[in-house]
Each structure stands twice: as C-alpha cells, then as structure tokens.
Amino acid sequence: MCGIVGIVGHTPVAPLIVDALKRLEYRGYDSAGVATIEHGALARRRAEGKLVNLEKRLAEEPLGGLIGIGHTRWATHGVPNETNAHPHFADDVAIVHNGIIENFAELRDELSSVGFVFTSQTDTEVVAHLIARELRGGASPQEAAYRSLQRLRGAFALAIMFRGDEDLIVGARNGPPLAVGHGEGEMYLGSDAIALAPFTDSITYLEDGDWVVVRREGMQIFDMDAKPVSRMRQQSVGTSFLVDKGNHRHFMEKEIHEQPEVISHTLANYLDFAAGRVGGFDLPFDFAAIERLAISACGTAYLAGLVGKYWLERYARLPVDIDIASEFRYREMPLPKASAALFISQSGETADTLASLRYCRGEGVPISAIVNVRESTIARESDGVFPTLAGPEIGVASTKAFTCQLSVLAALALKAAKARGVLSAEREQELVRQLSEAPRYAAQALKLSERIETVARELSHVRHVLYLGRDTSYPLALEGALKLKEISYIHAEGYAAGELKHGPIALIDEQMPVIVIAPHDRIFEKTVSNMQEVAARGGRIILITDRQGAEKATVKTLETIVMPDVPEFVAPIVYALPVQMLAYHTAVIMGTDVDQPRNLAKSVTVE
Ligand code: F6R
What we know:
8-stranded antiparallel sheet; binds fructose -6-phosphate; Rossmann fold; 27 strands; Glutamine Phosphoribosylpyrophosphate, subunit 1, domain 1; alpha/beta
C-alpha cells in the first residue's frame, strides 16, 4: 500500500525522503513523488513506476529545501501515472495520502461548484482543496487542516505541508498507520518505523482519530476534538533491521531461506523443548471455557488459519469457524458468549482483518491475534497477542510469516488441547518433540531448491495450473496456487483433491499440470485415487510427497519431488517450502518482479 514520509530537517531533505521511501517499497506501489518548499515555493518531482524513475527525475532536476513530504502510491482512484502521483498541490498546500476518502465524489462536486479545479483523478486532491479553501477563508494552517479532517469519511493517513510555514507538517491518522519519529532538532513522519529507521529509533505511533503538528523542535498530538493527547514514545525494533538481500537475488528468496531459523525462534517462544511442554501464551480467555473459536484473516494469513482449524479441531476438539475477513466483517455472524476470536496478520494493519476484530470487540468476545509486526494496530487492539518471530518480511508474497503463523497455530492447538483435557502428558511431549524438529526438516526441504527449479521450467511454459491436496494439504494447495499466480501471473487454482470430480476435472487435458501435495499420511490412498482420475484424462502430475509416498503412488507422474519423511502434525509447516520455492523459481524464470509483483501491496490498508 501507499507509503508516507515527511521530514522537517536542517539539511536538504529530498534525498533523505527518497531513501526512506525505498524502505517502504516492500509495501507495493506503482508511482512515487516528493515535494519540498524550495526558495519559499512548493516544488515537486513525481514519476510513474519504481523509485528509480523518481531518482532519475531528481538527478535531472534536483530539489532543494529543508522540509518535505514523499510518497509511494498504490493506485485506488485513478490510473498509476505521474499526474495522479502524490504529492498533490492546491494553492499553498501539499499533501500525501494513504487510504481512501470515501466521500470524495461528494466533496469534489462541492469544491468544483465553487470554482476549485481538479488536475488528477485521485480522491486525495479533494483534501488539498478542502484545506486550501479554509486557508483562503483566513484559517491558520493548523485550523485549516483540522477543519478539513472533520469533513473526511474513510480510512486515511495524511501528511500535509504549507507554503509560508517551513517548520510545519501536519499528519493525521484514521486507519492506516502513521508514526512520528523524534530526532535532534529534526522531526519525521512515516508510515512505519522501518521507513524512519535511518533517522531515529524513537517513535510515537498515532492512534485512530489522532492528528499531529510536527515542528523541528517537537510535536503535539491532538484528538478529533482538537484536545491535546499524549501517546507513548517508544524505542522501535525496526531500527536493527537493514533493507538488505544479503547474498540472495530477491527478498523472497532470502525470506524462504530464513525459515528454519525463524520457525525455530517462533516455536521456542511457545514451547519448552527441554521439558516437552507447551507454555508461553498470553491468553485472554480459557480454552476450557469456550465452545467455539472464530478465526478471521486475509490471503495467506487466512490459509494459515485454515490449517489451524484442522489442528484445533483434531487435537483440541475445539470447533473453529474460519472466515475471509472481508466477508466476516459484514456478515453479522452471531458470536456465542462462550466463544473467542483469533485474527492472523503479518502486517497487523490489514483493513478487513482490523474491521473484523472491531466487530468482535463490539460483540464482547475476547480477542487475540497472531501478528508479525508487534507495534501494529491489530496487536494494539487485541487482548492477547501471539507474535510470530519472523522478522520484517519485505517480499510482497508472504513466505516466512506464513510458516511462523503455522508454528504459532500448532503450539496454540496443543495449548488448547491441554486446557481442554484432551492431551495426555506423553502425547504433549511427543508432539512438542515433533514440532522441535520442524526447523531441521525445513532446512532439508530447502536443499530441494535445484530440483524444484527444474520442475519450475515446466511450469514457466504453461498458462494454467491446478493444485490438489487433502486435509492440511488442502490449504497448502490453495497457498501454492495463490503464490504462483501472484508472482508469476500464471493462472492457478487450488482444490480439495476429493472435490475435483465435482467440476474442476473438466479442465484436465494433456496440457494441464496438476500439482499434488500428498505426504504419505492416513489419507494418502484417497489422494492416489484422485491422481488416477487426473492421469486417466492425460493430466500431467507433479507430485510433492515423501519417500513412502513416492514408492506407493501407483500413478505415472511427470515429476516427483521427494521430501524428507516428516510426522503428519508438522507436515504443513515443512511442505509450505517446496510450494513457495516452486512459485519463486517459476517467477524468476519468467522474469517477473518477484519482490514487488504488479498490482499487489504488502500491507493492505484499504478495503
Ligand atoms: C500473499 C500475501 C497476502 C497477505 C494478505 C494478508 O502472499 O502476502 O495474501 O497474506 O494480504 O496480509 P496480512 O497478513 O498482513 O494481514
């Protein structure tokens, strides 16, 4: 999603802003821009596409000025071109915006009818004109911003700069995150601590409804009634992180390879390996006292939740309702008293997941969240937080966050099973031991990278792919299809293997690769039958299985990827890796933008 940076500094800010924007590239964007006040006038450079294009513009026509705002835009209203790129100007106002102004059409009509002329198709420009109208009416910049904010509906984060006051940026937050960075005689605004990491690790996060006046010597936060409010200043953990691919070609590759380590960190946070016990959950409810758990999330995080449903129901005998957050938030699901809600999000800022959380808050059920960004809104609004220790995930396609979410869910299933009296001490010890081996199995799976690259060559020539799996391999089939389509742009669909004959089998012909995820488990034979149905119709099977599965699959396959033998409980964590590598290598062979695939954003803060 869009990224925002603002600096009230004492050296030329344009290059600093571009550097900070680079750290926000991972969020996904399709144009970028920076504005400063140079020799008393608003000046800007904007460019369609990646930041290198903006850097080229700045090299041709440098931008001076000690105060500035910058932006990476992920288009919502209006195509991604230079005209729609931020910052937007109106009279003496420059503005950058993340989110959606829902009543922009109504505001634009109102402003157009009194002579304001719009130069872009964006919803953002209405905010600039609203503020400009207040300034024309004699309001101070601060008043003009505040009054205009009261007219806006929707989810937004804003940074606003005013010609005539070179010591002022006004920021506002209602939805997407915005953080103030504290420096020495210099202050910053940014979408997250990662953007501000080169400047400061001292951060204050705005809360929803807050707006802030930022000057070189400090800042003041106000609420929507314009009353000063105080928000905690904290040391950011983002500073220790460098945006660095190491020896890897892409962040995604690096993040895939980090998995043995981050899975082990995450598991160690919830399990006592030495004692063979589960522990360490800051639970806001008692698993023994609830009858249902509602899980809600988006995309890959939702698919982690789907695996979690299988685990919680099987091992803890706890019924789980799982929903895609964008559906859950509006479907007015009744939540029984004896229930709890769990949200899963890497970024902790996904608008639909956050809205679902707030719905559950309204229903009065205890709320917990699995998040990777601990300072995120979802983490802050939850009663209990179960962090994934994946570290910053930069590749737009989620990899290590997914396996860390699975690791937390596996430990949580054991915690629930224990609390509900359905897990003996011996079984607990056995399952904890199995989980403790997941990082080692993941490291073994990584060794299959070259083999998988060979298989990816086959995929790089096709237009459509099917993924099949049963039980916990079914969510992995969905994840495989999602990963492949998002980074290689090949059309892919995942199905429960048993569902094939109810429709999708019509798609099978000699051209169709069918990727079957099937460890040798208690339903392996059933999946073999489904593979036979595919083979009988000429489908080209790529089987991901283990040694036993490879021996017992009585079907001719195009390729078989033989995974290490892993216990059934940890299989989803380990089998996620070949699925990710297959998508990764296919995308690399096809030459797509692996880390920032087209049209996608890392942190989806709009509906
Ligand atoms: C896919 C992917 C997305 C995210 C989804 C939720 O690779 O990354 O599907 O999983 O946008 O994002 P978070 O987890 O930040 O809520």
